[in-house]
Amino acid sequence: MDYQQLLLSKNGLAALRLAREFLKYQVGTKIPTVTDMSEKLDIGRGTLQSSLSLLQTTGALKLESRGHMGTYLVKKNTLILLEIANITSIVGAMPLPYSKKYEGFASGLIVAMENHYNIPVSMAYMRGARNRISMLLTNRYDYAVVSKYAADEFMKTNDSIVIVKSFGPHSYLSEHVVIFNNPKAKTIEDGMRVGIDVDSIDQKELTEEVCRGKKVDFIPVDYSQILSRVIEGDIDAAVWNKDEVTDKIVNINYVSVKTENVADTEAVIVVRRDKEEIISLLNEIIDIETVMNIQKLVLEGKITPSY
């Protein structure tokens, strides 16, 4: 069936909105009444009923009336719903793949998502969790990959995003470290020039934490330039991703950032709270074990990253 032609029909727009609505529902759940759904979607009852019949005719879903108990969704074909909903691709944003761990995660995520429904998956790579979340909130992307630490910090003051998938400690990075220009330094000292990237929630918050109680000069710096700026001596120290030191076999002095909270090492996927159809879809198609297995194989050098 030509579903795009269907969308041009009299009930096409209603069918599209209804398809997106049913992407949110799990098989076996009770669906809202026609009256409630009509009010929620601002679709006339007659049009809504015609669109429901159309979705059932196409095989997108099957409903079962159970008398006074209501109507239940007993079967749905997500592939057909996606076509009718005109969701033809999924676009996400994640950190620039500086490290093998990031490369492995990106590769695993794409494999996990493309294994379902043949939906093309695109990934944008950009620094700074704040930037990625900002683009998510302006509908530039369907989801964003950030650390759990960054997501939790953002959600303390803004409840417009939700965590859809969590991949466990050390899925984002091994650990954060403080790198020093001085090969003998062991801690942040008064008078140091410390690099800080305000667009990186993790780096900014951890930098302020390790410098607490010290009289330092915070030097604004792009995260991608931190390592070179410390090596050159433009700044004395900075919080950095250990993976990017060890992967590149950089000869630089560093010490671990001491914290009991490992949320900064855990990768999570966040989505706009009001994008219920995307939340449901990502929950359905992303298998955490698949992503982690691919990441592990990339880290072990057994497969080439592809993202």
What's the arrangement of secondary structure elements?
Elements: H1 3-7, H2 12-22, H3 34-41, H4 45-57, E1 61-65, E2 71-76, H5 78-84, E3 90-94, H6 100-114, E4 121-125, H7 129-137, E5 143-147, H8 148-155, E6 161-166, E7 176-180, E8 193-196, H9 201-210, E9 217-220, H10 226-232, E10 237-241, H11 242-247, E11 253-256, E12 267-272, H12 276-285, H13 288-299
Parallel strand pairs: 3-4, 3-5, 8-9, 8-10
Antiparallel strand pairs: 1-2, 5-12, 6-12, 7-10, 7-11
Output the CATH homologous superfamily of the largest domain. Periplasmic binding protein-like II
Shape, per Cα inertia axes: elongated
Low-confidence stretches: none
CATH level-1 class of the largest domain: Alpha Beta
Rg over C-alpha atoms, rounded to the nearest angstrom: 24 Å
The percent of residues in helical segments reads: 25-40%
Number of helices: 13
Largest sheet: 5 strands, mixed
Order of helices and strands: HHHHEEHEHEHEHEEEHEHEHEEHH
CATH architecture of the largest domain: 3-Layer(aba) Sandwich
What spatial order of strands do you see in the largest sheet? 4-3-5-12-6
Mean pLDDT across every amino acid position:
91
Distance between the termini: 32 Å
What structural class do helix, strand and pairing data support? alpha/beta
Number of domains: 3
Could you tell me the CATH topology label of the largest domain.
D-Maltodextrin-Binding Protein, domain 2
**Count of DSSP E strands?**
12
Relative strand content: 15-25%
